[in-house]
Amino acid sequence: MIDGTWEPCPAIRWEDAFLSGNGRHGAMVYGDPADDRVIVNHHTLVRPNGSEDLRPPELADGLGRLQDALLAGDTKAAEGFGAGRPLVWVQPFHPAFRSRVRRTRGLHDAVAGYRREVDFTTGEVTASYEAWRSSVFVSRADDVIVQHVTDLGLTAEIILDHTLPGAPAHLAVGRSTVLTPQGAHLALRVGYPGSALGYTGVTAARVDGGTVSVAGEGIRIEGARSLTLTTRVVRGAGRPDLGELWAALPEEDYATLLDRHRPLHRTAYGRTSFTLRDAAPERELPGSELLRAPGSPALLERLFAAGRYHLLSSSGLLPPRLTGLWTGDWDTAWSGAFTTNANLNLQIASAAAAALPEVTEAHAALVQGQLADWQDNARALFGARGIVAPSHTDGTSGHTRHFQRAYPLHLWTAGADWLLQPLLEHAEVTAGTPDAALTGALIQAALFYEDFLSHEDPDGNLAVVPSYSPENRPANASWGTVNATMDIAAARHALTTAAEHAPGHPSAGLWQSLAARLPDYLVNEDGALAEWAWPGLRETYDHRHLSHLYPVWPLDAINPYDTPELATAAHRALELRGSENDSAHGHLHQALIAARLRDPSRVSAALGSVLGGDFFHDSLMSAHYPSRNVYNADAAHTLPAAVIESLVQSTPGRLVLLPAVPAAYPAGELRGVRTRFGAHLDLRWSGDGATAVLRPTRDARVDLRTGEGLVLTETSAGHPTAPLELTAGVDRVLTLGPR
Question: Is residue 124 a contact partner of residue 20, using CB atoms and an 8 Å limit?
Fold first, then answer.
């Protein structure tokens, strides 16, 4: 099954629970007939930890002295900039509670014929055996979690249970239960220790037949034909009016609610598909069995589908966190934050090409909602106008608060450009140009560099100082230094992009001249693109981050077509890069860059490290480390981008077909891809060549490039052309054959 996955037994660990979500609420479904648990999540659920009101410290007065010291050769000067402040993590993401439908013991010991599955096309998770069936989905139409349980003579206890792993000892917990003509209303109010804030979960239980009574902390139903639970979570201060919350829950039956939700989810999920020719024999295997065959084409197919499904399901109110939209434990690694110096952009890397504007819109909501905080960062830390993005956020505050000697993330100035790039790609795919909101943010990014770039190197180039390459350091210097390659790339891109899209701005000409005065990238003694373009700084190659290859991916400022010598140096840097601690995001970041540099063997190796490293749970959500260590969405969400980049790449003026196809996947089909010159694309490839169908939505003139050993042999006009002249509304068929 391409568009779903299944298991022959219930989940035992919460990490293996099947997932559903609408970008606000998330559900984790165990599918256990005896104790039918659904963990309830919501994007707003972050626990107050004292960081919520922190503002960036006023450090700008010392910036000039720091810059002078670094340029004078003091390699440790930055260690005192912001020193003495404790490391404060953002508010940690946590689960709300789990709904439990506990049935009478001893009646359902046998599970022959059991099946648990998730349908990616609808977002519905089902579990069944014999007469029992439990179905769960998270509604895009009504913003509720809906569960429907059927059985013959259903007898069970239903509670909202807050006792999840890692829950603080001093939560203030209150419950309410009210019987209704349809069944019952349940509520769970949880207050955070030492805070006026808390959250409330409300559930309407609709019971068909039988009896309902209050029992313990919930209700008991006896002899029912079916049960429907409709649940919603709200977070805030004080005690909300439970009557109003219950009244706001939809009252329709499960089928009606599903019918209202299904087309919204199916339309979004169904825009893009990926199939491999040799996958059919194993498509019907359960996911856990496929995961034991890392070389199976069916596994890559299913993980591609699962990655798009989970990415879509976790994006709405906000983009995906480190854990997507789901966790079953209050002690989430790295606070379950949005880590913005690599992970977030990697997770949403497929959004534009894989036709998921919902994901980009969620990312835009995060960015636009925090621009005022980013302005505070620029002013307080650097005495500049414009914006500086933080390296971590909980989704509520965009203020920088990560001050640490070993990871001085407060020195990272490239974040705004890095985080605006996915929005720019989305604009290119859709309208062709940024809207007013994005243009305003691009201007703010350029204004920062207009103020910040105030020092020169000995050759008269502008120096980016202080500078930091996440999360690495030179082998012979401290972390904060001069001219990190990522910082140079971000500054140049921010300045030129703002000038291009705001040509009438009074500073547009100045921005172009500042960009021209930035230093060139440095090629080191190993022939590799250096991570720091500053004489004397030595490389630290064994690291999970590839920040210095930002000009390759996603910027395309270094590529094999326009800058072949720099592309060779970037490829050498990729060859020398280690994997450090085997983080999943490091492997897939390597795959994305290798695809841009037309290296299919390195794409294969990176994918192989993830597929064969035991990174995926039975849920097909991933882990940060091998052996399913630390629940984390990086691999699950990034994998579709790596697949697409190996098959299709585009810029506003270029299309690259089959640049880096792994040898293990010699034939297949990719449908519904969006290009950055405004065309939909379907691609079919095999050992004999390939066919691509372009459906332009606007006129474009595009340079066509193909993978090694391929040549354009025929177009819809009957003859090869390069560049391609595309006309809105006129399909174009391209045929590639062996050279």
Answer: yes
Q: Which residue intervals of 99-183 are DSSP H helices?
A: none
Q: Read off the tokens for 206.
A: 């609709």
Residue 301 CA: distances (Å) to CA of 8, 18, 641: 20, 18, 13
- Supply the DSSP symbol for 187: E
What token pair was written down for 65?
Answer: 């002295």
**Cα-based distances in Å from 712 to 687, 692, 724, 733:** 15, 10, 11, 11
On the 0-12 / 13-18 / 19+ scale of CB atoms within 10 A, 266 is: middle
DSSP 197-264: EEEEEEEEEEEESSEEEEETTEEEEEEEEEEEEEEEEEEEES---HHHHHHTS--S-HHHHHHHHHHH
Whole-number pLDDT of residue 1: 65
User: What are the backbone dihedrals phi and psi of residue 613, each rounded to the nearest 5 degrees, phi first?
Assistant: -100, 15
Cβ atoms 686, 672 nearer than 8 A: no
> How crowded is residue 237: how many other Cβ atoms within 10 Å of its Cβ?
10
3-state secondary structure of 109: coil
3-state secondary structure of 670: strand
Tell me what pLDDT residue 104 has.
67
Asked if 307 contacts 142 with a C-beta cutoff of 8 angstroms, the reply is no
The residues, ordered by sequence, that sit 6+ positions from 2 with a Cβ below 8 Å of its Cβ are: 273, 275, 279, 283, 301, 302, 305
CA–CA distance, 420 with 547 (Å, rounded to integer): 16
E strand or H helix at 594, and its extent? helix 584-596
Instruction: Please tell me the distance from the alpha carbon of residue 512 to that of residue 509, in angstroms, as a whole number.
Output: 5
Which amino acid would we find at residue 396?
A: T
Measured CA to CA, the distance from residue 491 to residue 518 in angstroms comes to 8
Q: Along the chain (739 residues), what's the average pLDDT of each consecutive run of 10 residues?
A: 92 98 98 96 96 91 96 94 84 98 60 90 96 96 98 93 95 97 98 96 97 96 96 95 97 97 98 95 96 97 98 98 98 96 97 98 98 98 98 96 86 98 98 96 98 96 97 95 98 98 98 98 98 96 95 98 98 96 96 98 97 97 97 98 98 97 96 98 95 97 90 63 88 90
* Euclidean distance between CA atoms 110 and 590, whole angstroms: 47
Distance separating alpha carbons of residues 302 and 643, to the nearest angstrom: 12
User: For 407-463, where are the E strands, in sequence order?
Assistant: 455-456, 462-463
pLDDT at 109: 45
The CA-based angle 473-477-482, given to 5 degrees, is 75
Backbone phi and psi for residue 103, each to the nearest 5 degrees, phi listed first: -95, 165
> What H or E segment, with its residue span, contains residue 565?
helix 564-576
d(CA 645, CA 424): 18
> Residue 447: which of 387, 362, 365 has the closest Cα?
387
Question: Could you identify the residue written with the tokens 């293996």?
Answer: 16
Alpha carbon dihedral 466, 472, 477, 482, in 10-degree steps, equals -30
DSSP SS3 for 40: strand
Contact status, residue 648 vs residue 705, Cβ threshold 8 Å: no
Q: How remote is the C-alpha of 570 from its chain's centroid?
A: 25
Helix (H, G, I), strand (E, B) or coil at 306: helix
- The whole-number pLDDT of residue 715 equals 60
Q: Which residues are CB-neighbours of 73 under 8 A, at least 6 positions away? A: none
Task: Please state, in angstroms and rounded to a whole number, the distance separating the CA atoms of residues 734 and 713.
Answer: 8
For residue 419, how many C-alpha atoms fall within 13 Å in the half-sphere facing its CB? 34
Tell me which residue has tokens 């995001």: 585
Nearest partner of 571 among 544, 538, 600, 533, judged by Cα: 600
How many Cα atoms occupy the beta-carbon half-sphere of 235 within 13 Å? 18
* DSSP secondary structure, 448-465, as one string: HHHHH--EE-TTS-EE--
User: Could you give the CA distance from residue 282 to residue 289 in angstroms, rounded to a whole number?
Assistant: 10
Pick the closest to residue 54 from 445, 339, 393 (CA basis): 393
